[in-house]
Amino acid sequence: MTVAKEALRDGRGREVSYLRLSVTDRCNLSCLYCRPKDRISFIPHNDILRYEELLDLVSLGREMGISKVRLTGGEPFARKDVMVLVESIRRRFPEMDLRLTTNATLLAGKPALLAELGVTAVNISCDTLDREKYARITGCDRLDLVRRAIDESLAAGLRVKINAVALRGVNTDEIPAFVRLATDAPLDVRFIEFMPVGDGNLWKPENYIAAKDVLSLAVRAAELVPEENGHIAGGPARMYRIAGGLGRFGVISPLSEHFCDACNRLRITSDGKLRTCLFSDREYRLRPLLRNPKLGLRKVREVIALALRTKPLGYEVLNPGAVPEARNMSAIGG
Ligand code: SAM
């Protein structure tokens, strides 16, 4: 199979090189802002893409021009044998930039192998450094496991990014503590604006805080030096070095200062639906094609190409305060 020579582009000329693959909609946490407990219903097992199907999609993606794959969920480590999938992707696609997004509660014991497999980075979701608050936000008292996994990941030499959803009145008082974390350890902390995505989402204007306001709280704790190119290497985060520190602090501002013009992403949900924009509920069903021997990857390729022609601009879909979407973040993969 040959790797695409030309970049994959959408109908607006944006280069598309990044695939977020959700490997499960199940999660061992039920974060207030993501999948509140009383709203949970799971996708039936048979409807979840099998590992061979995920590998086929990565293979097709690579052929079409995808160079970066992120495994997400639900909680990727809540899926049985996900390390086998990581290993298979690495074996079949050695050049692929492979990353994971995880809540890290099931990560301890795995970072060394992930590093050995050449996983580029782990994004670890952790919204608070306070044990009781963590239990309130996530429904589980597991902050100690997360802290252990962070330490192990750093010790294994993995690049670590901590993602915290900025929740006004919930964790904004901890911004200085997060700045200290990134001062003392060589990791990135990124505060993400709370997005009104998902039907059980508790998004309220009172809980929302814009990235610029997060930054103004952070600069009270340390001197922040903007990275030269602001948004790092095509990523959505605006990062700052911490003077005298080992790590960096940054913000991701999908609402207040969107980055849709540079969006390079495709998402595939764990039940095999292609989404070209986080904020649009428009989905393309790939699973029936994948499972039909007469159609298979050839048809999937056609559908991806077609869907890309109308990949939306998220900010045109989502007006501030608009009706939240039908799928929860845990089912989309963030
Ligand atoms: N379970 C994994 C984890 O916790 O990282 C992966 C899935 S989770 C849905 C992916 C990311 O989406 C997490 O960083 C989470 O904090 C973020 N997220 C979920 N709901 C969100 C919301 N309403 N606004 C902003 N970020 C959200």
Structure explained in plain terms:
By secondary structure, the chain is an alpha/beta fold. Helix content is 29%, strand content 19%. It has one domain: Aldolase class I (TIM Barrel). The protein binds S-adenosylmethionine.
Q: What's the structural domain tally?
A: 1
Low-confidence stretches: none
Reported CATH architecture: Alpha-Beta Barrel
Q: How large, in whole angstroms, is the Cα Rg?
A: 19 Å
Give every kind of bound small molecule, once each. S-adenosylmethionine
- What overall geometry do the principal axes of the alpha carbons give? globular
Number of strands: 12
Distance between the termini: 30 Å
Strand content: 15-25%
Strand order of the largest sheet: 7-8-9-6-5-4-3-2-1-10-11-12
CATH class: Alpha Beta
Sheet with the most strands? 12 strands, mixed
Mean pLDDT: 92
GO molecular function: 4 iron, 4 sulfur cluster binding; cyclic pyranopterin monophosphate synthase activity; GTP 3',8'-cyclase activity; GTP binding; metal ion binding; S-adenosyl-L-methionine binding
Subunit structure: Monomer and homodimer.
Function: Catalyzes the cyclization of GTP to (8S)-3',8-cyclo-7,8-dihydroguanosine 5'-triphosphate.
Pfam families: Mob_synth_C, Radical_SAM
Question: Which descriptors would you attach to this protein?
Answer:
4Fe-4S; binds S-adenosylmethionine; TIM Barrel; S-adenosyl-L-methionine; globular; cyclic pyranopterin monophosphate synthase activity; 334 residues; alpha/beta
